[in-house]
Write a structure and sequence with these properties.
Elements (H helix, E strand, L loop, with lengths): L1 E7 L5 E7 L2 E7 L7 E7 L4 H17 L3 E5 L11 H15 L6 H27 L4 E9 L2 H10 L3 E7 L9 H6 L4 E6 L7 H10 L5 E6 L9 H14 L1
Parallel strand pairs: 4-5, 4-6, 6-7, 7-8, 8-9
Antiparallel strand pairs: 1-2, 2-3, 3-5
Helix pairs in contact: 2-3, 3-4
């Protein structure tokens, strides 16, 4: 991991951009760190520069509660090399949605599975590097982003102790078996009127999760209409499980 820039935000949060091989990312830490702090990994749908305003706001909320936060660019996102197979599947998905057609499982598989297979090892390598820093001590939470990536991470990464998942993206049906293996505490956010998401599939996925502690928070509104107070609920969830 190589840090390439550093700045202090208005509230004193320390923001550092880094690279890990070809992977760009950002680490935010509270204004003053006197002992190693817990870490929350911030997922997003890709395009780190475009997502930055939302990510930095989430990171500042984390820092206010004493958490560090970090995010990395997805494969094929931002300035990373193009992921042609995923781009083709995304174009097919858009055509189906625009035509009002049912989204075929084959399209979802081509869109999501290659991304999960590549992104999850990158997240784990990033976690290795972050936990080697003296100011980061764990435990670790995962928040947001593409839900299938969160599902896979919750299964294969034992250092992640709790996850907040956004039910706003398609999930291959083959991953339902992985969902049954998830055992960490979960909080799932669902926008009831999300025009680009299969609500019933999201409900079925929540039902499949094997966690003994899991909560579904459903709000009216479209994909980008998550209410502000949902962030406060997320903070309480992570405080309960990471502190």
């Amino acid at each position: 991991m190589e840090f390439i820039s550093e700045q202090r935000l208005d509230d004193g949060v320390r923001e550092r951009e880094f690279t890990l091989g070809e992977i760009p990312g950002i680490l935010w830490t509270p204004p003053s760190v006197t002992a190693p702090v817990p870490l929350i990994l911030l997922g997003h749908p890709g395009g780190l520069p475009m997502m930055y305003p939302r990510l930095v706001a989430r990171a500042q909320h984390c820092a206010a509660e004493g958490f560090a936060a970090a995010s990395i660019e997805l494969p094929g996102g931002g300035n990373r090399p193009r992921f042609l197979a995923v781009e083709e599947a995304r174009a097919d998905l858009r055509r189906a949605l625009q035509a009002g057609e049912r989204v075929d499982d084959e399209i979802v598989d081509r869109l999501v599975l290659p991304l999960v297979d590549k992104a999850v090892p990158e997240w784990r390598a990033t976690l290795d590097a972050l936990l080697a820093l003296p100011e980061i001590g764990g435990p670790v939470g995962y928040s947001g982003g593409i839900i299938a990536i969160g599902v896979r991470l919750a299964v294969v990464e034992p250092r992640i102790r709790a996850a907040l998942l956004f039910a706003g993206s398609f999930v291959p049906r083959s991953m339902f078996e992985e969902a049954r293996q998830v055992s960490i505490p979960l909080q799932v956010l669902l926008q009831w009127d999300d025009e680009g998401n299969d609500r019933q599939l999201a409900l079925d996925l929540f039902d499949a999760f094997g966690s003994r502690e899991k909560a579904l928070h459903a709000n009216m509104g479209g994909h980008t209409g998550i209410p502000h107070y949902a962030g406060e609920g997320a903070n309480r969830f992570f405080i309960r499980h990471l502190k």
